[in-house]
């Protein structure tokens, strides 16, 4: 789904570079950079947590995952502030084609962040068990992979929307 969305975005961006460049100039890349650092930090915390579970340091793993959840929440707040700023400046989803793609891509990503935070909470509940079955380890790994996919999507969305000319 995201691959198709990225391809369609690039097609229309190529068809009207003046509009897309002008609208892109209205974005504050500081929000994108901050969110990139936040998500990269959260992924590092998740990787470290999974490693801690494998070493039977579940208490540490739980704290690391809660840190990743805090990063996810910070991402949501940062994106909310950015949305509020853009809308107060008169740049909503219907402003032009660029802003339609901006809100659709970042909004879909935001939904995935919210689902990912829920999966991180599930990971925390797993770390509270003294022993994990093979299936529970698989669930832990799957939830971590989902979180990394969310991070990877942002690593593509950020340059597409904020940097690519």
Automatic annotation (TrEMBL):
Keywords: Membrane, Transmembrane, Transmembrane helix. It is found in: Cell membrane; Membrane. Gene3D superfamilies: Cytochrome c oxidase, subunit III, four-helix bundle. The chain crosses the membrane at residues 31-53, 60-78, 98-124, 145-164. Pfam families: COX3 (PF00510). It catalyses: 4 Fe(II)-[cytochrome c] + O2 + 8 H(+)(in) = 4 Fe(III)-[cytochrome c] + 2 H2O + 4 H(+)(out). It comes from the Bacteria. The keyword Lipoprotein does not apply. SUPFAM superfamilies: Cytochrome c oxidase subunit III-like (SSF81452). The keyword Membrane applies. Residues 1-165 form the Heme-copper oxidase subunit III family profile domain. It is a multi-pass membrane protein. Coiled coil: none annotated. Belongs to the cytochrome c oxidase subunit 3 family. PANTHER family: CYTOCHROME C OXIDASE SUBUNIT III (PTHR11403), NITRIC OXIDE REDUCTASE SUBUNIT E (PTHR11403:SF6). This is Probable cytochrome c oxidase subunit 3. It comes from Mycolicibacterium aubagnense.
């Amino acid at each position: 789904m995201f691959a198709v969305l990225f391809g369609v975005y690039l097609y229309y961006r190529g068809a009207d570079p003046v509009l897309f460049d002008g609208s892109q100039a209205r974005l504050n890349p500081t929000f994108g950079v901050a969110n990139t650092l936040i998500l990269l930090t959260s992924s590092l915390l998740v990787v470290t947590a999974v490693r801690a579970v494998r070493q039977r340091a579940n208490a540490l793993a739980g704290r690391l995952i809660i840190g990743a959840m805090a990063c996810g929440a910070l991402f949501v707040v940062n994106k909310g502030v950015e949305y509020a700023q853009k809308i107060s400046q008169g740049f909503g989803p219907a402003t032009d084609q660029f802003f339609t793609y901006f809100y659709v891509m970042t909004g879909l990503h935001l939904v995935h962040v919210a689902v990912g935070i829920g999966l991180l909470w599930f990971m925390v509940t797993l770390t509270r068990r003294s022993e994990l079955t093979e299936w529970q380890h698989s669930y832990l790994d799957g939830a971590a992979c989902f979180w990394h996919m969310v991070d990877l999507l942002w690593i593509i969305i950020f340059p597409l929307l904020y940097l690519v000319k």
